[in-house]
Each structure stands twice: as structure tokens, then as C-alpha cells.
Amino acid sequence: MRQPLSLKIGPSGVRGVIGESLTPQLVTSYAAAFGTYCGAGPILVGTDTRPSAEMIKQAAIAGLLGVGCTPVDAGVVPLPALMLHVREAGAFGGLSVSGSHGSLEWNALRFISSEGLALRANQAAELTDLYHQGLYPRVRALDMSDVRADATSSARHLGAVTRTVALERIRARRLTVAVDPGGDVASAPTLRLLEALGCRAVSVDAGRDATAPGSPEPDEASLLALGERVRRSGADVGFAQDADADRLFVIDEHGVPLGPDATVVLVVQRWLERTTGPVVVNVSTSRLVDDVAARFGRPVHRSRVGEAHVIEAMKEHGAEVGGEGDGGAIVVPVNPCRDSFVAMALILESMAVRERSVGELRAEVPSYSMVRERLLCPARDIAPSLRLIRSLFPGERFDLTDGVKVTWPDRWLLARPSATEPVIRLAAEAPTEGEARSLVNRVLEVLSPGA
Amino acid sequence: MALRELKIGASGVRGVVGDALTPELIVNFACAFGTWCDAGPVVIGRDTRRSSTAFRAAVVSGLLSTGSRVVDLGVSPSPLVSFAIRDLGAAGGIAITGSHNDASWNALKFFGPDGALLNAAKNEELLDIYHGAAFELATWDRLKPVDAAAGIEERYLESLASALDVDRIRERGFRVAVDFTNGACGAVATRLLESLRCTLLPVNDEPTGEFAHPPAPTAANMRQIATLARCFGADLGAALNVDGDRIGFVTGEGTALSEEYSLPLVVTPRLRRRPGPVVTSYSTSGMVEALARAHGQRVVRGPVGESQIVDLGLAEGAVVAGEGSGGVAVLPLGVAYDGLLALGLVLEEMATSGRSLAELAGALPRLFMRKRELPCPPNLVYRVIERFRRHHAGDSPDCTDGVRLSWDDAWLHVRASGTEPLLRIIAEAPTQERAEALVDEAAAFSRRITFGHEGS
Lengths: 451, 456
Fold this sequence. Notes:
The complex is a heterodimer. By secondary structure, chain A is of the alpha/beta class. In chain A, about 40% of the residues lie in helices and about 20% in strands. Chain A contains 15 helices and 21 strands. In chain A, strand 12, helix 10 and strand 13 form a beta-alpha-beta unit. Chain B is an alpha/beta fold. In chain B, about 40% of the residues lie in helices and about 20% in strands. Chain B has 15 helices and 19 strands. In chain B, the strands form 4 sheets. A 7-stranded mixed β-sheet of chain B has the order 1-2-6-5-3-4-7, sandwiched between helices. The longest helix of chain B has 24 residues, at about 430-455. Chain B is globular. The chains are: A alpha/beta, B alpha/beta. The interface of A and B includes residues 18, 58, 63, 65 and 104 of A.
């Protein structure tokens, strides 16, 4: 039986199930629409190692050639490296065939603009219009281009990352790093980066390999396994990447996972030591970022949730560093997208230059507790529900960037509609878990079904 | 709305690239073919056209999505695809090639598990799957990879050698000029001629897909190779079309022979080695009848087109089957038109008889053939043919493929092209005047019908 709704067409790309909704016909047509959108020039195509990667890639190549583009096959390459390659090489755009954190029956075609960024919402809307119209300017036989190969993405990316950091200082420390690269795509580039940084790498295969069934996302069990590995190997730090290698999760020298917010906190901390300028994170990211920025006297701007929104806001405010609380850190001068390799290198630089352990660096700012809940809410009830939440906190100042956010000196509460599900996402952060929980409960008391 | 130039027919799907023939259409056909093959392994090859690279990607994607393993021969002649299907026990094959059409066209040729182009019944099954769009797509865990076929060229060359008197050809050390039409045959043909100890004088051998002349090996398209063969002092010249399924010959003296000569030149050496029936089309020269009679063999005629001629040849137990287009299949060794094997057999005949190609051609029965093509909108073709049939109802017309009229000494054939929006008119007679008169009359009649309809 066919499952309903296995196709998702959104700003981040086209996701679907192999053998069901993500068919070669759909990919060929979408690639033709994307080629039409970008213009008849070079388009980089990179993949992950899923069994369906070749099928999707060939469909994309066919669609691109049909509208006069020159597909440039970048091979198996992590998403941040492909994005950097698109920008550096002056390509007209890029296509990433990567199922990301979806399980193995899924795959996705993701669109990269000539700036090396995910498409903004308005760009994605234009592309979708082109696809629906289906009127692509087909080229004649003799005007057709050919496929080129260019496997330099990883080398270019490694060069960009190592040029950024204080290489000799990191090398001199001879750090031991336990890594779980989460599959074949990031594995080799991660080990090359650590080698270039003079680190001893202890590699962990947590069974999240993309060719084996299971979740390609680092979950609690795999982070604990990595923590165990850090302890037993006496490593200075542990790093786990998600399947696209755009997000990073950090384990301290005692084997304790520092939580997904720690990545952007540590990266911001390092980058503010090096440069001037503000910080941008989304409304749902920990207030630890405010504490770090306050130490340097820098403002923090808050954007809507989602990588594209954060990047837009970074441009608007001229911020070099930012990210989200899901492990995604962005350092624009190196690569203007979430990049686990950049985050890894900067955290190692921080450890080397400041001569501190990763746990000590994290401890430079206080700890808070974060509580998150999801509340089922039909689309028509979302606006009244958000109004009701505002009425719970009379006299407070509301940040309406994305849903409703109420902020106090040492805590905050956020209620925002999900972009993908009929759900209101609740988040609260406070000095203790009890305080955070009670903020969330004030909303649940009035909005829970049956309340 | 203008009629788009797309032909979905007995010889696969064919059209003008970018107009009707889009990557999406090719993906759908590849999905249909993978479904028809029940996800078994499929051999693919392509010619040198630029658009063939794009369609290769579309074909690979479509086949993989149905769970087929793809064996990619890369740029290779169509007869090699046919050979590889049988050699590897594949479920089918696709040659991505516009073959004899000009560079703006391209096509897919579909081969079945027996290595022959799909016959009418199989083709109908494929088209039903295509039109129903009921493709059997595989789940992610049943997807297979794309592989190469190691050593396939060597085994193909061994197979060709097994049909030839290699030693006799080697003794002669022929000088052979070959026009490759910038197509897919260069590499394999070079190895074949080396193994036959021939000196190859290659022309248009850069595999650019930008053709130096129209690709069909007609006398008019062989002027360049004819001149060069004479200047090089070659024993023989030949022109292969882009995917190597058709061949035309030129003599050492620089005379380009009509492509009608290719089949008759092969019939004699083939029947000497292996007696059996000869199959050809209603539109092919009567020269083969005289040659077959000399070997005590019969000729069976069928409708025009490789799939139908090879299918009939297999049914009749023929040892050679071919057409006046320059396509010759040496059955049952090969089940596809193969220009390289035809070249080998003509060299063998020159070697064993000790005669030049001009002498061999001169010894063939003297018949004059006239061919004409009339552009005819696809929606009018059958009206014209039907009116022609009624006009000649008293001459007992054969209506198996268009209309064929035959008299004791001559014949006239009017049919719709299977690959282009054209009406083809062919006549053959003992004198040039008679052949011309037959064709002119049929052409004038057809024009009246076409024009009359357009004027109404």
C-alpha cells in the first residue's frame, strides 16, 4: 500500500520516499526547473552514500543537460563542502542529493544558490512555480553541454577551514579527538581535517552508516557511546556529526554530552575573541549566547527558526557568527552555512589558544535548563492559541519574530507554530529545570486538550 | 499547433532533441523498459551524440529506479549492445543512438533478452507499460549499481572472427579506408582490422558526434570516402553509420556503391560458408534473388525495418537477413544489423575470390533502382497510401507494408517511413528509364493526393 504524503516540497528541497514519491521523473523535472532558474551554466552535483544516490544523481544530470546546463559531478561530498565549492568555483548553482537525517527509504534533492546557500523562501517559491509550469527552455542537440567531473570540493573546503584557524597552535597541542562522523560522507574529510590539525583521531562507528539501516541522526544512545569512548581513550574532546555534516555535537573530556546548544556557544565564544561585530541566533537558541556576547559587549539579534532565516538576519545585521541551538554554527567569513568542520576546528583552536579543556570553556558561562514540548494544534486554532498565551503574561514585552516569546532577565518562554506539522512548539529556559518546567506548564494548563 | 517530430514505433522511440524528445520522456521509457525486463540486468550503450550523454543519464536513472542492474558499455556500436545482452545473459538492452538520422535527432533502440530488437508483440507490451505509466519502482533496499562489462569487446571480436576466414584475409594485407562518420565504431573497428592484418586508413574518426556529413551510408554521403579511398590507394573503402548498424562500400577506384549493394555483397560469402534462406524487405533490390538462386536458396521478403526483418529471419531459419539501407545481420551468430561483420565478409570474399570490389559489384545482376522521399505530414501518410492502393487495385497490390506492386521484371513500393514524416517511393527495373518512370508516376500521384487534401 502507498503511504500518503511521502513527498515534501519545501524551501530546503524536495524530499520523498524511494520507489514511491521521489521518482526519477520528478527529480528530472525538478532539476530542469532548477537549471532553468539558475541559467545555462555549471551546476555542481554532489551526493551522499545512500543506495539511491546514483539513481537520483543521474536523473538530476539528465534534467540539467536538457535545459543547457553543464552538470559538474562533485562525487560523494558533505553538504557544507559542496556549498563552499559552488561559491568558490562561481557555479550557477548546486544540487545536493542527500537524505540528511531521514531514514534510508528517504532521499532528497536540495538546492544551492550561486552564493553557496540554501534557497531563501522567495527563491524556492519561484523555483516551485517554474516546476509547476513545466515550460523549460529545452536546448537543441548541438547546444547540449556535457557532464564534467570535479572532485575538489573536500580539498577546497579543508583548505578554507585550515586557513582560518591558528594551525600551529592547534598542532602543538597534539589533542586526542574521538569522532563519530555519522557515515561514509563525512568520515574521510573529518579524519583529514583532524590530521591536518595534528590531532590523534579515535574514530567511532556508532552504526549510523548511511548504507546500513537505522537512524542517521546522532541520538542519545550514540552520544553516550561516544562519551564512553572519550573516557576510555582519554580523549580531550568528542565530536559527533549529523548525516550531512552540517551540525555538530560536542562531548567534554569527561565523556559528558554538552547538549546541542553548546556548539554555537563555543563557536561564538571563539569567534568573538577574534573579531568585532554582533551575533545572530534564532529565537529558540539558549540564552547562553547572550551571556557569552555580554562578556564581549556585543549585541545578539534573534531571527526566526531555520537556517535560511538565520543567514538572512546575519546579512542584515552584518554578523559574522551565529547559528541555531540544534548543533548548527555558522561563521560567514569561512563558509556562510552551517558547517560542522568549521565548528570543530574553531573549538579545537579555542582549546589550544586558551589552553583550557572543552569542559572549562563551556563552564565560563552559567548553566540553564531547557524544557521543550510539542502541543498538537489544528491550523485554525494556532492564532487564537498564541493570543491566549500572550494574555497569560500581561504587562510583559513580547518578541513576535517567530510565534510569541516572553523574556525575563534570567529566563524565557517561546511558543511558535511548526512549519511542517499542525503543532505549536513550546520551549522554556531557566536557571533550574523546575523553573523552566513551570513556565511551560502555565501554557499547557490552558491549552492542553481537555484543559 | 505544429506536429512535433516524435516517432514511437517499431524501432523504438525517436525524435528531435529538445522538441519532443526530452529527458523526462526518456526517463519514462527507461522505467517502462525496466518494468518490462522484470528488474533484470539491462545492457546500455550510446553513440557519440552530445544528447546521448544526457539521455544516458536519463536511461540509467529510469532503469535503476525499477531495480535493474545497469551494465554500461559506454560509447559503443549497437551490434555490440546486442552481443553483450546474449553474452551476459541480460534481460534486455537499450542503445541510445540516432543511428542514421542527423545530429539534431536521437532515439532509443530496445533489445530483448535474445539480443534482437523488440518484435511487434514485445514492442506492444512495452508501449502498453509506457502508456499505462504503471512502472514497477523498487524500494531503496532493492536498488542495484551501474557496472561495466570487462572484456566484452574481446569476446565480441572473437565472435566476429568465428564467422570469418581470418587466415585468408590476413594473407592479403588489405588497405581499408573507413569513414566512421564521427560515430561510435572507431575503437572496435580498429581492433577488428588490426586482427585481420589490414592497414586502416581512418576518416572522420574523431568521436565528436558532430557529423562531417549526413550519417546514412548512401552513395551521395560517401563522396568524401570515395575520393580518399582512391587517393590512398585503398583496396576498399567503407562508411559506417554512427552506431555501426549500416555500412556502405566504395571501390578502390573511388566509385561509391549504392547502399543496396551491401546485402548482395555479403550474401555470397555467407551462403558459401553456411547455406540457408535469405530474408530481406519488400523495398530491397532483386539482386539477392539471383544470388540466392545460384546457391539453391530461397529469398523471403517481409516488411521494412530491422526488427521485422530479423524476426522473420529467425522464424525462417535464415542465415543472412538485411535491407537496401545497408543493414545486414548474419544469423544466427548475430541477431542485429552489424556493419563490422558485413565488412569482414566482404574482405573475405575479396580474399577468397581474388577479385577487386569493383569486379565483385560488376558481377551482380544489373538492375536499376530509383528511390524518392516525399515529405508528407504524418496525418496524411495513410490516406495517400490507401488512395494509391485503390488506384492500383487491378495490379494485385501486396499491402503487407504500404503498397507493393510487382511485375515480372520490375517492382514499385510506396510506404510510410517508420522513422520520419516521409513517404518513401522505390522502384527497380532492368532499365533506368523504366525505374524512373515508375517512381515519377507514383510521386506525382502522391503529391496530388497530399496537395488536394491541403487545398480542401
